[in-house]
Amino acid sequence: MNNNISKNIRKTGFIILSFYVITVLLMLLFDFYNLVDFSETPLRNQIYAPPSLSHLCGTDRLGRDVCLRTLQGSTIAFEVVFLSLFFSLLVGLPLGLISGYFGGYVDKLLSILMDTIFSIPVILLSVVIAFILGRGVLNASLALCIVYSPQYYRLIRNQTLLIKSENYVEAATISGASTKAIIIKYIFPNVITPLPVLLTLNAADSVLVLGSLGFLGLGVPANVPEWGSDLNLALIALPTGIWWTALYPGFAMFFLVLSLSFIGEDLEESFKK
After folding, report:
1. Which CATH class is domain 3-272?
2. Which of 132, 133, 202, 213 places its Cα 20 to 30 Å from the Cα of 184?
3. Beta bridge partners of residue 65, listed in sequence order
4. Mean pLDDT, range 183-203, rounded to an integer
5. What is the rounded distance in angstroms from the CA atom of residue 205 to the CA atom of residue 191?
6. What pLDDT, in 10s, does the model give residues 77-102?
7. Where are any strands of DSSP class E within the chain?
8. How far apart are CA 116 and CA 113, in angstroms?
9. What are the sequence ranges of the domains in the chain?
10. What is the distance between the alpha carbons of residues 138 and 112, in angstroms, rounded to a whole number?
11. At residue 59, what are phi and psi to the nearest 5 degrees?
């Protein structure tokens, strides 16, 4: 990829992502100090009011401000994405290190398990797990964790297999270094190098999966602002010409995924060099 194009893509991705980060921080600040009325039943507002000076993005079927609800949805998206990727790393990283370093039956059993999970389509697996666990931020995060853990396991395992055959690792083994020291000091710092690429691309994917779960009514509770569930509710009003309840949550999800994809693709190109 041309260096100027790559630089522009990375810059665009970070600018868009920065806007979301600022939005999340502001929403948390407003919520903490109760600076904005986050009531779910603002009866004083007209339902399905079109965009105007009083409500720039209009209102929804309950009279809630669409702009405010869309901005609140970014907080839930970041929370679920962060927790799901954190849990995925927590599972996939140590299991990948153990499997790749020790091999044998442990490696075979873990590889069969992770390959089985990995072979199931992401959306299908996440829907089944979310249905079993029920609605909730933590449950949605755990559902995505199970979906993405095999990817981190496979990446770390393959990297560990390569690193442990390097001369400096063999020299450390011969010199009598303990298994724990070898894994922590020599293998771990080298196997995590490609993780930022996978983390960023999975973050973009998890936003879409979370939106799909919300759209199907399997994500977070109905009273929690979430883009997927808002899009589901917007479908009812869309045929009647009420477009604003679908447009803004859809755009919010699109641009967040776009920014993360831009950053991930640029990191991938940099890693290949």
Report:
1. mainly alpha
2. 202
3. 59
4. 92
5. 23
6. 999 999 999 999 999 999 999 999 99
7. none
8. 5
9. 3-272
10. 27
11. -125, 165
